[in-house]
Amino acid sequence: MSEPKVHPLAGKPAPPSLLVNVPKLVAAYSSEQPDPAVAAERITFGTSGHRGSSLSRTFNEAHVLAMTQAICGYRKAQQIDGPLFLGWDTHALSEPARVTTLEVLAANSVTVMLDAQDGVTPTPVVSHAIIAHNRGRTAGLADGIVITPSHNPPEYGGFKYDPPSGGPADTEVTKWIEKTANALLADEMRGVVRIPYERAIAAATVHRFDYVESYVGDLGNVIDMEPLRGSTLDIGVDPLGGSTVSYWEPIATRFGIRLHVVNPVVDPTFAFMTVDWDGAIRMDPSSPYAMARLIALGDQFDVAFATDPDADRHGIVTRSAGLLNPNHYLAVAIEYLFHHRPHWKPAAAVGKTIVSSSVLDRVAARLRRRLIEVPVGFKYFVDGLLGGSLGFGGEESAGASFLRRDGTVWTTDKDGLIMGLLAAEMTARTGRDPGELYRDITRELGDPVYERIDAEATPEQKAALARLTANDLSMTELAGEPITAVLTSAPGDGRPIGGIKVITEHGWFAARPSGTESLYKLYAESFEGREHLTRIQDEAQAVIQKSLRTISRS
User: Among 13, 55, 326, 356, which residue is least crowded by beta carbons within 10 Å?
Assistant: First the structure.
């Protein structure tokens, strides 16, 4: 295993040589056929759906046909007979995948809700629509599909299923869909039913739905718009060429906000992006390299933010601190929300993933709110948000959502729009931006140093890492401190974390294999400074490598 280096192009404008050939990509979607005997070409649901590229036969028409038919089978088995809300983003493969999906849904007589203007639809907007439809119902429940690879490069396509809970499907559901879809692939698609697109789009089961009005019209119930209405606060927004591009003008107009979209361009090559850390074009709003353009404009705005192509992730840029580390903003959001949402239940808890910063633990403790720590994946927050037992759920990769102002559910998926608007709300109400508010927190609770390293790993090493236990590590100290806990399951729900976490009084590390890439992720944090963090990282990498060598020999 070796730590990847930052690419020389990182943070610089994407050169033409990096741009994807869109006609070739779209042609491969229908012309290339996956081989079910090749593991990489089968359907695999990660933490939130299947994704891949038509150029590598990991996301193409056959995959979408099989997944959609499998979902039709799942709906029938679960007696889900309400409308299916269908959304898609601006990646080049999303449009042909939308056509394929609709052909199968219409052939299976599924009631489908398409955007009234044939526009793209953010992930949280689909979640919001499902929850709004299902509120108070016990029958005729809705679910949804979002066609998106999220923040991934332009050559990727993706496909996510939301059951009637409105959030990412749980592992049991995705495994069922995955198994059924792969069986269809292996059987040469004989179980797939589809009709031509011209018939599908005209089917009596296909309806138009005003996603923009439904979502924007309800925003005042989750964000306190009063301090923003008519204020002099200048707010910058970068949709990063994604599905929120048509949402910001209606938001600004309805609520009287001085909101400026810095780049309204939609281009499936995403040629306007600056290159990410590894030399790829990636629309990651938490990356300082991908966000270089908005960071450079930061001084023009009181607060600015971005969302990724399907708007389930956010990035916050402030005058005082530039691009906020996602963990820092989560801490500020939790601190602010639990002080400014008086109608939330006193028992509403704070949810965090196991690799998020421990400063969140300290904020929750000071608020006297229960902390619920879960494995990586927003699906583990769905039930808590749906029932109101979680006031807030957030993960270190810049994804979060929270309850409506009355303490009821807003979305059960990550919502980058409300996380950005919350930054504006708190700036208007407190007169201080989120960077300044984070400094207040660290003065009282400590100033942690946090870092994630992505290191190369073979499939065998990834499998071994997922099986590591405390006995395999044989550690009693970490960076000079006694180890207080070694976790292989999450304290909040007891589910396996798919890796290991080692904790001391002033620091910790966690290691887990990537679900979709040939690497493992090492997370580490120290409340004792950069030098202590480096010691934690060095010792963690050494003990992991030693343990994996031992396991591979046994």
Answer: 13
